[in-house]
Amino acid sequence: MRKIPYGRQDINEEDINAVITALKDELITQGPQIEIFENKFAEYIGCKYAVAVANGTAALHLCAMALDVNEDSRVITAPITFTASANCIRYCGGSVDFVDIDEDKVVLDVEAVRKKIESHPPGTFQGIVPIDFAGYPVDLEAFRKLADEHGLWLLEDACHAPGGFFIDSKGVQQNCGNGNYADLAIFSFHPVKHIACGEGGMITTNSKELYDKLLILRTHGITRRPDLLEKNDGGWYYEMHSLGYNYRLTDFQAALGVSQLKRATKNIEIRRAIAKRYDIAFKDFAPVETITPPADNGHAYHLYVIKTERRKELYDHLRANGIYAQIHYIPVHTQPYYRNLSTEKVNCPKAESYYDQCLSLPMFPTLTLEEQEFVIVIVKKFFE
Ligand SMILES: *Cc1c(COP(=O)(O)O)cnc(C)c1O
Q1: Domain ranges across the chain
Q2: Taking the model in full, what pTM does it have?
Q3: Which of 80, 83, 85, 133 gets mutated to test ligand 1 (max ligand atoms within 8 A of its CB)?
């Protein structure tokens, strides 16, 4: 029986040749492909600076470090995300407060975050990590306003949304990760995401100060920049100024990223067309609920999520038919690690109710019309 996964990378001959060419280069890491990838990615997203790193989790970790998260930090995020969005705060010793989602958008509820912040003494919280969940762009303008009122930073987890955008109150298109509202944003190039590098990640920002910090943290906290050195013993000389990591991307991964980026715009259009076909198929089909964004919202459709009361049975039924749907996500605050850390019960009923019903259907650019029709027929048959 054929298998249809929920997500799959799209690698073509041109991608493969780009990797082969990079492998024949003098430098297969710390070479020229990194800057090319960073510049082209920054151009695609519309931000000033981009820093390529080993994976999305490393990107989050470096951001938490650059934002000076420490043992005294309390940071707010959503429970419906991959665990890494919260873990990055823990890596730096900070604590995580989970605030419930807006049930229609499945993203962090800005008003619930406001309530949380304003029910605590000033200075309790240091930052917010909103997620463009499934590719649904968070209203960062509203989050920025709230963050500014309380002196907080904003770290956008845009792993699901390269190519996504929202329209701000001035009618201007704001691309996810463009740095106009959030201090920092991060992306992942894991094969199920829009752009595949095998493993890989990117941090984007418009802040020169954060950019300079990130470059140094990415390679061991070491710098060779003459203007930053305390002294200079000669051509070999470098100084370690902070405790960084080796979170670099290789040149052959970056070359794959550059090649993939050429199809990013086209592939987003394909994702939106797939979403539209699902929307139409389930529009008047009562047992299945869809999550439909407003018309002017540039959803990036990393995932296509449906909701049903009979989620577990439907999941098993699809699997029996070779359709590997997935669940995104198990609420992070219910994970044993976070439950054991928390002294009081975290109250996120909307996230928990969403989790009981959600199912991600196959969504990737090489999904054929015929495969999608098959998925729709199998879903509908289940409810007959
Ligand atoms: C994939 C993902 C990450 C982590 O990215 P990796 O490259 O797998 O480390 C973080 N946050 C979200 C929302 C993700 O989907």
Answers
A1: 4-261, 264-383
A2: 0.98
A3: 85
